[in-house]
Amino acid sequence: MNELSPVNEETASLRQDLSAAFRICHAMGWSESVGNHFSAAMSEHEFLLNPCWQHFATIRAEDLLRIDARDGRVIEGTGAPDASAWCVHGTLHRRKPNAKVILHAHSPYATALACLKDPTLVPIDNNTARFHGRTAYDLDFGGIADAVEEGERLADSLGDKSVLVMGNHGVTIVGETVAAAFEDLYFFEKAAQTLTLARSTGEPLAVLSDAVAQNTADGWIAYRGMAHRHFDYLKSQLPHVGV
């Protein structure tokens, strides 16, 4: 039996995790027709991306395209990335080498938050405070993100943060691993839901002080292992995707 080299094994694992993230996203009701994109860097200049207009529920490890971040050339796989995918993910992977995994979604509550005049994620509980000091905002929506200038602006807006609330659009999450990025996507959606429900009462918010919010955000660091255990469980619940 031929054993995979460490590099090939790592690549296979990355493909499996990223393809699972699409199917988990769909299972949670966060997919959108055959649009939206997730990507993961394989090296400084190459990243994996979902094929143009393939439904999240059907994406397998072998379906993912391997893209050159410098020019958009498809190195491995069939088809080409759509303009929006290349605009956002190509630019971010090229401009942000530390952005190993990039998840962009229009999950309901995150998108509702992004559509407010002031979409600031105010710290009012553990989940909202998780993102204190980690969230950037881009409020210059210009339609479908398929222009080079928009990709550059998004990269500038993200800066050194790990979450980008895209005004009138959705949310983009950056992480070191697929599991870590998906955990942030999961908790950001819960945080946006909590804030939306609290605001819907019409009562004043009990906003945490900056010190308490930062202490809460720092406290989450010790619980990073949750992401992998949670992601492993979510993967175990996925139905088999056949040929």
From TrEMBL:
Gene3D superfamilies hit by this protein: Class II aldolase/adducin N-terminal domain (3.40.225.10)
Gene Ontology CC: cytoskeleton
A Pfam family that the UniProt record links to this protein: Aldolase_II
Domain of life: Bacteria
InterPro entries: Aldolase-II_Adducin_sf, Aldolase_II/adducin_N, Aldolase_II/adducin_N_sf
Domain Class II aldolase/adducin N-terminal: 16-196
Gene Ontology molecular-function annotations: actin filament binding
Family: Belongs to the aldolase class II family.
NCBIfam families tied to this protein: PRK07490.1 (NF005689)
Name of the protein this chain belongs to: Ribulose-5-phosphate 4-epimerase/fuculose-1-phosphate aldolase
